[in-house]
Design brief:
Two copies of one chain form a homodimer. By secondary structure, the first copy, chain A, is of the alpha+beta class. Chain A is built from ten helices and 26 strands.
Chain lengths: 430, 430
């Protein structure tokens, strides 16, 4: 495990609990109001450092060309790990208190640094494919208990393979770029009647992280577990919005579809695996021991990442904390997920988004969805400003945050913040 | 229903049963050996007409610019229906026996026409998203009978909505561009033991068609049923290769994953809905009547398309016909599939591929998968050259064909032809 250089600091003023310390340096795509042009930046404190400008100024030179004056990070990521390492070290040096290049050049700072509050963030990568896993044992057990059979909550395949399914990449968006319109679909409020078409009544969030694939494989050629981590670039926070009532009626036998394809919301900054390296921790014990193709030689293949979700109703002064959990509870590692994904020969591509699945911890205060927090609407949550919730109402804003912290150093994800709008009044005859 | 102008013929020599008559004019992307550059073409008889060359020569001028000197058809399709109509009428005129422009210009013909046997076909569109439906009632009933309960073979949601799931777009390929490597994965040959990792033993095809989305919607805005058909550009043949033993173990509760993500094979030529218009036919009666959002005002929303699948073992002289069926058996229409896909607000994009699901007819001779044809390995199929099959062996080539025919006019899809190679010898320790 790498240690943290606690002497490293930036000349940029920032709060001591900023998610975007010099130890983080997450990548995103931004535009400022001046020209609306999208290019790559790195978050530092409350600022964004313009990487395209650094390339123009000759202060950031990578192998094989220029990568940051582009509307996505795919070309940079695809250029390989040597460039990831080179970019990180160059940017870290430029931002450090010990380096005068940027520190002492007010003119350059004015051109290269923007306040995050003044820029618009965009989807950081083009996402060719999106897959969602289901790798929290606590979440899968809770859902199985609620929907199926408390005595056999976990299905037999769950402990043998990281269960996952193909999601819909077209509706993954960056937080802030759109509100969430309450979906309509087929619901079956009365088991004895036919379904009805109506707005979803059980709108839910799923507190997740997701990783971004950084290196492709070829169709027909699985990624062995020993090489899986070489294919992962970084992580984001992820709210996989879900319509529980639509899901319940549609999902047998081919899995969730309309219940999940209306909105999947990611945070704008990709936190690299390099930045997360110091926060590695042990995976929970896997019992039974996985089949050989899923067996990792190391055990520190999880990460200590604090996660929280809050709700802010329309007009409320303060948000209500709904849950606090941690990525370290996940049963299957990201490496195991990726190897399993490709084991039958499936090709993954640079920019693919792989969701963790809802992250629930062992106690009720650490569950990652309203379905679990309010236990299938049997335990309403009291809100700070009054009122209760069993699922998400129109006007509610759901806020997810996440960070790793150690030795006073924080590496954070920022937040995902989505507001729910009422369902459309749909015109059948249009 | 449009009538067929049976007087229309091409000056290009072709067999009377050619799939690629002047009434068809399907679009594809090809390269010839000279420079390997990908561009758009139209199939005519045994030839390909180079559309990029026609643009250069000023013989094909569409609104808004040039579209065919590109490696995919997405820009052309995205340019809209007016251009689809204009391109079709211009190309049809150029190829007709009554028009002298191309007919009498040997020099132009030499530049513009290639033999299909001499060119390489590529994926005709970039496919942002791939969805597979499950819309054959006979297939769903057969699968439910084999795997679940003969007395409740069809699940309750099946007659209420076109069941579908997200597929994996990265492994959709054009027939001929790669062989199919037998996938490996988790199998559970003994219900009382743990699963094993091994090559799939129940490799299957799925005889399908798929449609290509021609017009996007916006996230949050469903496509109403009255406008669904405006969003469909054309159709291809589709073999959705499937590993039945992997599928059986993995698919509950989130649907098929590794069992389907290794190979999905399409035919190279997109047959347009304009070309298929004369072959419209009635949908089967839908009982119960669908909910209003799925209710079409017309009933002729299916198509009479003959489909067949054959198998050619390694070294065999002749293929064995396994099944003959027809697209007209499908219960849900493509318009209904598309509306349902977007009903919760899901965005579809130009180039999205929407599979029909396995197309089975009412009799054993018309089933669309080996699972059904050999009835879960209980009724082995006799091969012409000797031997039997219950699933697909290494070295087997599976051939699918499809066409519509009426008044002596044929509009065909060509074929999908995939050969199965042995499983990789996978190195766990790499």
């Amino acid at each position: 495990m790498s240690t943290i250089d606690t002497n490293l600091s930036s000349f940029i003023d920032m709060a001591s609990d900023s998610d975007f310390s010099i130890h983080n340096l997450p990548y995103g795509i931004f535009s400022d109001t001046a020209d609306g042009k999208r290019r790559a930046g790195v978050a530092i404190g409350e600022h964004v450092l313009d990487l395209a400008l650094l390339e123009t100024e000759g202060l950031l030179t990578l192998k094989g060309g220029r990568y940051f004056d582009q509307p996505t990070l795919n070309a940079f990521i695809d250029s390989g790990r040597d460039n990831w390492t080179l970019a990180r070290s160059t940017i870290q040096t430029l931002l450090s208190a010990d380096s005068d290049t940027l520190r002492d050049d007010q003119h350059l700072q004015k051109k290269a640094l923007f306040k995050q509050a003044d820029v618009t963030m965009h989807l950081p990568v083009h996402i060719p494919g999106y897959t969602d896993f289901y790798s929290s044992k606590e979440h899968a057990t809770n859902v199985g208990t609620i929907f199926r059979d408390p005595n056999n909550a976990l299905l037999p395949n769950w402990t043998e393979l990281p269960v996952g399914y193909n999601g819909r990449a077209s509706t993954v968006f960056v937080t802030g770029s759109t509100d969430i319109i309450r979906p309509s679909g087929q619901l079956k409020p009365n088991p004895d009647d036919r379904p009805i078409f109506a707005p979803c009544k059980r709108l839910d969030f799923e507190l997740e992280t997701a990783f971004i694939v950084g290196k492709p494989n070829k169709i027909g050629e699985p990624i062995p577990i020993g090489k899986a981590w070489d294919h992962i670039f970084g992580m984001v926070l992820f709210n996989d919005w879900s319509a529980r009532d639509i899901q319940k009626w549609e999902y047998v036998p081919l899995g969730p579809f309309n219940a999940k394809t209306f909105a999947s919301e990611i945070s704008p900054w990709i936190v690299t695996m390099d930045a997360l390296e110091p926060f590695k921790t042990e995976l929970p014990t896997q019992d039974p021991e996985p089949l050989p193709y899923l067996r990792e030689k190391k055990t520190d293949s999880s990460f200590d990442i604090y996660l929280s979700v809050s709700i802010l109703p329309e007009g409320a002064d303060t948000a209500t904390l709904l849950s606090e959990t941690n990525f370290k509870y996940m049963y299957w590692s990201m490496g195991q997920q990726l190897t399993h994904h490709t084991i039958s020969g499936c090709e993954v591509e640079v920019g693919d988004l792989m969701g963790s699945g809802t992250i629930s911890g062992p106690t009720p205060g650490s569950y990652g969805s309203m379905l679990e927090i309010a236990w299938n609407a049997t335990k309403p949550v009291e809100l700070k400003g009054g009122g209760t919730r069993t699922f998400i109402d129109d006007g509610d804003t759901v806020i997810m945050k996440g960070y790793s912290e150690k030795d006073g150093i924080r590496v954070g994800f920022g937040e995902v913040r989505g507001k729910v709008l009422p369902a459309l009044d749909f015109d059948f005859d249009a």
